[in-house]
Amino acid sequence: MSQSVQLLVDALLVIGFGVQHSGLATLRVKRAVKAKTGIEPLAWRSVESLANVVYILAAAALWQSTDTVVWELSGAAMVIMYALAVASWLWYWQLHLFEYDCGLAFGSTTLVSEAAKAGRPKITNWKVGSRRWIRFPVHTAFFGMFFLLPTMTADLLVLAVVANVYNVIGSILYDKRLIATAGEPYLRYLHVTGLIFPPVYRAPKGAGDLPMPAPAHWRRPSMHLPGLVVGLGLGVLYHLLIGPTAVTPMDMLKAGGAGLLGAVVTGLLLGAVLKPRAADWAQQQTDLSTTVALNAATGVVTWATIGWVQTGQAPSFAAFLPLWFIVQYLGHVFAFLAGRRKWTAALAGEGSAEAAAPAAAPEKPRIGVTARTNTAGGVS
Question: What's the distance, CA 69 to chain centroid?
Fold first, then answer.
């Protein structure tokens, strides 16, 4: 197979991801799914994310690597580029852990809520960190994650270019969906923020003056330490099961299996060890999903660090996102199942309180109430 054909195959694989990703996320598909199956749009996010994982693993197995080097840095330039690339990936996980509620973003809280008969969870956009200026900061991180490579081969450049073209297009489409679903509150948020890059001159204060709730998942950082500790062990488990790198189709299968095993083991462990630290069911699940997400991110970073030390290169990032999502999503589910009785104890009190309380007026949508991103491999 000639190199031009190889690069065409790679480009089509990336385009295919965008087509399936945006197709599953359209409002038309979500309405059709709800009408036929009763699955709510928020719960459908988990199906979207699972489809992303399967597609990424399949695309990685079919990927056509090339030997043509577009650029190769050395010395201080190489060190700086490596540092920027690592910073971009770490920012990607920082955004999920600190600026989003992962359980809501990926749909695991919706699944857990349905299993517990807790009602539909509510989504709130926090005015925190970069989201004060950027509506989709995870999409901003994608540019550094894919372009800032010290050694750029032709196939990786195709990935970076095509993926980020879709990144911009997908962000615009997502923005339009949020305008349609959230209306005027989201428009006010939109006018003072940038799509992917901050509005430095247009609105330097960003959403600073908009009334938005404060984050609720890091009010007690110490409660999430078990996720950090267990995540270190998860990274060692990945190294034992997958090895220091993941490149071949068999490696991708190993990564998928290791993610499933890691989700079960760490989810059950964290679910048994952790205790509810709030009386409110929604807050409990925010706390639980955040601890599990910290475990998932720490596991991937630990595995990548071990591989880098051994081989001088980080494992293929095609395995990063599936490992991250599988453990975050299924780990939350298994953590809930491990201690279902203690996690559902709050629901009895909430149910009786709601029954005794008078009917409240419909809540007005808050600023950016649905302005969040599902980033298990791409743009929602």
Answer: 31
Continuous segment of H or E residues that includes residue 217: none
Distance CA 44, CA 350 (A): 26
Q: What is d(CA 53, CA 38) in angstroms, rounded to the nearest whole number?
A: 24
Q: Which residue has the tokens 């709050």?
A: 346
What are the pLDDT digits (tens) for 239-263?
A: 999 998 887 778 888 888 999 999 9
C-beta pairs of 54-57 under 8 Å, 24+ apart in sequence: 55/16, 55/17, 55/20, 55/21, 55/377, 56/17, 56/318, 56/321, 56/322, 56/377, 57/252, 57/253, 57/255, 57/256, 57/318, 57/322
At 322, list the tokens: 């599936």
Nearest to 66 by CA among 132, 2, 136, 161: 2
List phi, psi (to 5°) of 201.
Answer: -95, -35
- Bridge partners of 363, per DSSP, are none
Task: Give tens-digit pLDDT for 132-182.
Answer: 899 899 999 999 999 999 999 999 999 999 999 999 998 998 888 888 877
CA 225/CA 228 separation, integer angstroms: 5
